[in-house]
Amino acid sequence: MEWEEPHDSALYCLQTDGNHMIASGSSYYGGVRLWDKRQAACLQFFQLSSRPVSSPVYCLRFSSSHLHAALASSLHSLDFRQNNVYIR
């Protein structure tokens, strides 16, 4: 199977849950994508950087309830347990 980053950005990091999910961090705009290994298209995209300055996602970790991502000058935590995913 092959998954393609829609904006042709280099991937800086990725992690799998050991089952069906993959999270990838891109080189621009603090972008994190969630993928299902059984599907070719991205399931969800999170733009973590709200500033006009572009930052790669240098490192990420995720579980079924949270995603943590490190950018150049910030650390973001997403809580999937809430109805609306809250980015801090």
TrEMBL record:
Q: Which SUPFAM superfamilies match?
A: WD40 repeat-like (SSF50978)
**Gene name of the encoded protein:** LOC104956032
Any GO BP: SCF-dependent proteasomal ubiquitin-dependent protein catabolic process
Matching InterPro entries, A to Z?
SCF_F-box/WD-repeat, WD40/YVTN_repeat-like_dom_sf, WD40_repeat_dom_sf
- Under which name does UniProt file this protein? F-box/WD repeat-containing protein 4-like
What organism does this protein naturally occur in?
Notothenia coriiceps (black rockcod)
Lineage, top-rank taxon, reads Eukaryota
One Gene Ontology term, aspect cellular component? SCF ubiquitin ligase complex
Name the coiled-coil region(s). none
